[in-house]
Amino acid sequence: MQNRTVVAMGVLLGGLALCFLWLMQPAAIAAGGPDGSSAGMGVGFEPGRNGYVRPEWNLGTAVTAGNLTVFPVTSNAWRGAREFITLDEGLKSGKVTITELGSSRSGHGSRDGAEVNKLALTNRTGRTLILLAGEMLIGGKQDRIVDQDQLVPSGEQPVALGVFCVEHGRWHGASTSFGQNPSVPMAQVPGARNLFGGVNSGTGGGQIATPAVRGKAEASKDQNEVWSKVSETNKALKTTSETGALTRAYQDSDVAKKSAAYENQIKHRIEGKNVIGVVVAVSGQLVAADVFASPSLFQLYWPKLLKSYVLEAMGAGKTSTAAVDRIAAEAFLYKSEGEAASQGKNRLYRLTERKSKGDASFELEYTATPEPMLVHFNRVASR
Fold it and tell me: What's the pLDDT score for residue 47?
């Protein structure tokens, strides 16, 4: 009798333990990894909004052109972004000026204090300037790109701006100042008049480097790797430049005609009052996510971001149109694994970076308000 009692108690306790584990499983799945990522969650895990950088985000239906796939990211909750101004808007207004370091202190450039990886920027717009990693600065002694996401307050004094060179073979120029990339004229690209966000008599406005080049700047932080990726990009797109300039890929008329075919199929299908960003894949592989504080802010960046994604797709060297796994695309809206490293300017912004072996993520937050505002989330794959 006693043995039967012991066996019965053992069965009962085992059953209770199994029930406990079954009840705890959803909680463990919802909690995710220590950084909110989907890694290590086991078979059958389906990412959801609880793991996104912002829970109000939603991943929309993919739009595809050739080997380029774009998922829109939507939200029903956002904050206004009227206090900000973009680099393109600032340069066009003439109230944002960028010069070689040293020339801002010397009206005629007689004191040449120029540095490859540093420029001088002045923001007199009266608004906070947004700079994104990879935004292209054309002119000076050589073309550069912004090294990382950041915010610059309005003021009369120039501030130092970290950059990477994307024109290896030049260190001279008639002007010490920088402007927007004069892309191929719209008239040379049939049906592309509204694709580039153009200014100045129909030529292209500012541009941003491809995700692969951006990744080398903001994640690797290595000038030689940036130059190497620029060279690979020009080679893949069959564009040549005596100075190894990345701008050649944006100015080549043949490349522009081919890229317009991609852009025409995607641009206006990623629009709407709730679209705040995108997740992007090339040849079935996820390469980037760019999500902004509001739909209006996203639309300001969308034309040049799309151009950069298209050039990445055109230079991939693969024609694969493999479907992109939606669960993987959702997981790309999570923070990368790895410890967080933050930097910024007190009471203005904080940039939080997380890097893993396969990718890196960046969160640019505006901290001048009681509740920080996420201005831009960017995740790039390592390639």
Answer: 44
Give the pLDDT confidence of 241-259 residue by residue, as tens digits: 889 999 999 999 999 999 9
Least confident of 43-57, 248-262, 339-353, 356-370: 43-57
- Residue 173 maps to a domain: yes
Confidence check: pLDDT of 19 > 90: no
Number of domains in the chain: 1
Residue 12: inside a domain, yes or no? no
Closest of 258, 298, 297 to residue 72, by C-alpha = 298
Does some domain include residue 297? yes
Q: Identify the pLDDT of residue 180.
A: 63
- 106: pLDDT strictly greater than 90: no
What is the extent of the structural domain holding 85?
Answer: 49-381
Residue 139 lies in a domain: yes
Written as six digits, the tokens of 189 are: 């690209």
